[in-house]
Amino acid sequence: MQDTVPDSAFARGLGRLADLVLAGLLWTVASLPLVTLPAATTALFAVADGWVRGESPPVLATFRDAFRRRPVRGLAVGGALAAGAAVVAVDVAFAAWAEGAPLRAAVLVTATLPALATALAAAFAFPLLALTDDGPVALLRNAVLLAVGNPLPTVAAWATVAAGAALAFVAPPVTPLLGSLAALTVAWLARRALSRVPTPTTRPSPVPRPTTD
């Protein structure tokens, strides 16, 4: 009896590793057209959230169903985040290259607000896309509110993404696995942040509680 326990634990570990790799590969392939990146990332978070809840969701079916669900909503949210990042990039580039320009400092200061808003919204936007049916505007607002109310998980989420991106740059072949691990970590942080949202019976909140379906 005792000899079967390590084997079972080892088998479960191999199974989870295989699921992580499969989910990462699905996300990588589905993201290749770029325009499908928001839907693919939402699908990856749908799988990761099942893992966070202690379940073993069928990776392919869960990913496929989440990928097909309201792709326009994901595209709208992803487009808004990309637009915010583009505005910040243009402003920073202008401030960096426009030596002696009279508006250089003003442009740099102006970039601070969209940069902060984009960073806050992006931290939990995709977990909320996987967990809720909110429209793009409400979802982005709720993502910002969730991030503002949970600064440490927000910083941890961005640190996770940054570390994953850096490691993927150094070792591109492990990008699918790193993507799954980052999604799993951020999904856990999102669930932790959402657990602090008061229920409607105690105090109304603009941030919806996640479903567990």
* SSE-based structural type: mainly alpha
Number of strands: 0
Shape: globular
> What is the H/E order?
HHHHHHHHH
SS field, number of helical segments: 9
End-to-end Cα distance = 35 Å
Radius of gyration: 19 Å
The amount of helix comes to: over 70%
Mean pLDDT: 86
Parts with pLDDT < 50 across at least 5 consecutive residues: 1-5, 201-205
Beta-strand residue percentage? under 5%
The biggest beta sheet, please?
Answer: none
Short summary of the structure?
Helix 2 (37-52) packs across helix 4 (71-97) and helix 8 (151-170) runs antiparallel to helix 9. It is built from nine helices and no strands.
Describe this structure in words.
With 213 residues, the chain is an all-alpha fold. The protein is 76% helix and 0% strand. The radius of gyration is 19 Å and the shape is globular.
Features:
mainly alpha, disordered N terminus, 9 helices, 213 residues, single chain
Strands, helices and their partners?
Layout (H helix, E strand, L loop, with lengths): L3 H28 L5 H16 L6 H10 L2 H27 L6 H7 L1 H20 L4 H14 L1 H20 L4 H20 L19
Helix pairs in contact: 1-2, 1-9, 2-3, 2-4, 2-6, 2-9, 4-5, 4-6, 4-7, 6-7, 6-8, 8-9
